[in-house]
Amino acid sequence: MTSADIRDPELPGRLLVVERDALIPLLRARADADFALPTAACPGWTVRDVLAHCSSALIRVVERRFEEGVFSPESNDRDIAERGDWTNAQVVDELERGMTEAGPVIAKAGGELDVIALGEWVHAGDVREAFGEPGAYGGAGLPDALALLVRLTRERDHVPLQADLDDVDEPLRLGGVPGERTPARYIGDAVTLVRLYAGRSAAGASYELAGAKEEELSIFG
User: Fold this and answer.
1) Is 185 left (phi over 0), alpha (psi -120 to 50) or beta?
2) Buried b (16+ CB within 10 A) or exposed e, 50-79
């Protein structure tokens, strides 16, 4: 077992707080019309829909509401619809509360909810991309996001892969223990690696991926 396999219970909450401090001021500075922009990563969802999904998911964590079918597409659509008559400011307020209060609950859950923090961070990138902001899927939270990604892919026995990153000193080993399959290899930057694992478009990025197909890397199904 390496240090990457040992769960840091504070990491998901730390990732959420770092992202909160970057994202919430950005959202409060945008015009209402910007919340109606479409998101390329979530077809059919506007920026507001993504934010409502994120805020409702985190409040479910805070309030420990996990009924049958939670986080299914149908459940997500209901959560968004329930906030249909809210102002954009109310959605942002709920998101801020969730990003502040969910961390301690996730920490105590033993790892079961860690992926929610990574998903929220990725959705923040979806919003930045819709806004045309630089640094989507990057920023101050990237090191913690990478650490969480490494551990989650190992726990899930994902496709074994060695990532030689242009902007990180040491190679990352993601996925399960190699068996008969030779580990895949990625050469490129960290943001593009995140895009591939999150199932987001990496069009126009310069990278090499050998031994696996892009769609095999996606961790969100």
Assistant:
1) beta
2) bbbbbbbbbbbbbeeeeeeeeeeeebbeeb
Please report, as a single letter, which amino acid is at residue 149. L
Confidence bin at 18 (pLDDT 50/70/90): very high
- How many beta carbons lie within 10 A of that of residue 219, not counting itself? 20
User: What pLDDT, on a 0 to 100 scale, did the predictor assign at position 24?
Assistant: 98
What is the percentage of the chain residues whose pLDDT exceeds 90? 88
d(Cα 140, Cα 143) in Å, to the nearest integer? Answer: 7
Q: If 0-12 CB within 10 Å is exposed, 13-18 middle and 19+ buried, where does residue 100 land?
A: middle
d(CA 140, CA 135): 10
pTM: 0.94
CA 76, CA 116: separation in Å to the nearest integer?
Answer: 13
Q: What is the dihedral of CA 22, 94, 58, 116, to 10 degrees?
A: -30
Output the six-digit token pair for 213: 């197909």
